[in-house]
Amino acid sequence: MPLRHREFHQLGNMGWLRAAVLGANDGIVSTASLLLGVIAAHATHQSILVAGVAALVAGAMSMATGEYVSVQSQADTEQAALAREGGELHDDPTGELRELTHIYMERGLAPALAEQVAMALMAHDAIGAHARDELGITDSMRARPLQAALASALSFAVGAALPLLVALLAPMPVLAPAIVIASLLSLALLGALAARAGGARVGRGMLRVVFWSALSMAATAGIGALFGASVG
Fold it and tell me: Cβ of 196: how many Cβ atoms within 10 Å?
């Protein structure tokens, strides 16, 4: 029983870990790519830093807004489903008892035991039992828009701060390679963390993240070089 309880919490935290890693990954890739594009366009060091700060703020706000709207839509759907279920429990408690009993029978319980369990759970918390077993809504997995928005914004900002810090400290002659190396190393670490947490192959997770991130940086740097050449 203790082992199973610990595994439950690991799986429950996977969603937040995945969101945090994804946000940090986006922050590193988008900010590093933008900085490389601006550097390739032969911008001044001050312009590069301004672009990096703007990318951090705009990206964090965009992540927060998108996550809030998405999770709030999920929360609205959950609330509507719970309200509808509450009405059904009020209007037809016997039918809802049969429905819950049938759910437990499909999960392997004998009919008599399934009905006994359904009656006990409905007597304790009818809406909670139907929310969990019929609708798949639990307290630990409920949509929390503000929490999700803040987590996404913070993780993006933390990721974006890395290439921006390199841009602040590294001298101009080595600025581009310094950003690339620092960003790819950090992305490889995040890929390994995500793979290890999910039980996947660490090497494959690292390679996948590094490959696509390097491709993004190369594409943005190429566009910046073309833009800088055309302006020049």
Answer: 12
Nearest to 18 by CA among 211, 216, 209: 209
CA distance 106 to 102: 6
Q: Where are the beta strands (DSSP E) in the chain?
A: none
Q: Per-residue pLDDT tens for 55-76?
A: 999 999 998 998 889 888 888 8
Kindly report the three-state secondary structure assignment for every residue of 41-75: CCCCHHHHHHHHHHHHHHHHHHHHHHHHHHHHHHH
Residues 131-144: tens digit of each pLDDT = 888 777 776 666 77
Instruction: Report the alpha-carbon distance of residue 88 to residue 188 in Å, rounded.
Output: 51
**One-letter amino acid for residue 150 of the chain:** L
31 pLDDT band (50/70/90 cuts)? very high
pTM above 0.70, yes or no: yes
CB contact at 8 A, 107 and 132: no
